[in-house]
Amino acid sequence: MHQMSDMQSCIDECLRCYQTCLGMAMNHCLEQGGKHVEPGHMRIMMACAEICRTSAHFMLIGTPHHKHTCRECAEICEECARSCEQVGDMQDCVDQCRRCAESCRRMAA
Amino acid sequence: MHQMSDMQSCIDECLRCYQTCLGMAMNHCLEQGGKHVEPGHMRIMMACAEICRTSAHFMLIGTPHHKHTCRECAEICEECARSCEQVGDMQDCVDQCRRCAESCRRMAA
Amino acid sequence: MHQMSDMQSCIDECLRCYQTCLGMAMNHCLEQGGKHVEPGHMRIMMACAEICRTSAHFMLIGTPHHKHTCRECAEICEECARSCEQVGDMQDCVDQCRRCAESCRRMAA
Amino acid sequence: MHQMSDMQSCIDECLRCYQTCLGMAMNHCLEQGGKHVEPGHMRIMMACAEICRTSAHFMLIGTPHHKHTCRECAEICEECARSCEQVGDMQDCVDQCRRCAESCRRMAA
C-alpha cells in the first residue's frame, strides 16, 4: 500500500525529470551538437520527457494503471541515464533520471 | 518485423481513439451526467485518451519503447470499451477502443 | 528582460497549477458531483490543466512563443479561478490559479 | 459561426501537422544533421508539434478558448514553414504547416 505522500513525491520526481530531459535536450544538447544530437540520444531524451509527463498525468488522474506507466518510466529513465553517461557532460540529467527511476520502481511495486 | 504502413495505421488508430475518448468524455458524458460522470468511467476515459496520445507520440519519435506503450494502450483501451458498454449509449467509443486495442496488440507483438 | 530565475519560477507555477487542476477535476470534482461536474466547470478545469502544461513546455523548449502561451495561460487561469469560486469548496484551486496567472502575466509582458 | 465539420477538419489538420513536425524532427532532421539540427530549427519544429497537439485538444474539450490557441497555432505553423524552407529538403513539412495555418486562421476568426 502506498501512502499519498509516496505518490506525490513520485509525481514531483517525474515532473522534475520531464523538465530536465526536455530542457537539456532542447538547449544544452542542441547548442553542444556532435554526440549530443546523435539520433539515439535525442530520441531517448524526448521519450523520457514524454513518459515522465504521462506517468505524472496517470497518478494525478488517480487510475491504478499508473503502476504500469511508472514501471515503463523507470526503464526508460535508466536507459536515458546510460545514454547521458556515454555522451558525457550531462551529469544533472543522469542524476535526475536515476532518482526518478528509483521513485517509479517503488510506485510500480 | 513491422512495416512502416503498420505503424502509420497504428498511429492513426491511436489518434482517432484519443479524439473519441477525449471528445466524448468532455461533451457527451458531461452533458448526459448520471452514470456517464461516475468517477471510474471518467478516469478510464481520460487515461485512455492520454495513453493513446502517448503511444502515437512514441511511434512518431521512433523509439523501440513504443512496443511497451502500445501494450499498455491495448489493455487500457479494452478496459475503456468495457466501461463504455456498462454505461451504455457509447457505442462509437466501444468500437474505436476495440479497433485501437487490436492495432496496438499487433504493434506490441 | 527576464532573468532565468523568473522563467523557472513561472515553469514551477504552471506545473503546480497543472497538478492542482487535473488532480482536483479527476478526484475532488468527480467525487463531489453536482455543480462540480457541470460541463462548463469541468471543461475550464481541463483546459487550464492543458494550457499550463503547454506553457511550461514552451518555456522548457526555449522558444520566444512562450510569451503568447503564457498570456493565454493567464487568461484561462483567471477564468478557472472564477469558476472554482462559483462552484465553491475549491479554494486550493482558486489560489493556485491566481498565483499562476500572476506569474504568467509577468512572463508575457 | 463555425459548423462542426469545420472544426473536425481543423482538428484533423492540427493532428496531421503534429505528426509531420514531430516525425520529421525526430527522424529526418536528426538523421540528416547539419542545418537540420540547428537549435532554432529544431525548437520551432518541436514548438509547432506541441501547439498543434494543444489546439486539437482544446477543440476536443469544447472550450471557446480554442480560438486563441488556433490563432497562435497559425502563427507558429507559418514560422515553422519558413524555417523548413530555409533548411531545405523539408517540403512535406512546409506544405502541411501551411495547410494547418490556413485551417487554424479560419477557426480563430
TrEMBL record, chains A, B, C, D:
It holds the Pfam family Csp. This is Four-helix bundle copper-binding protein. It comes from Microvirga splendida.
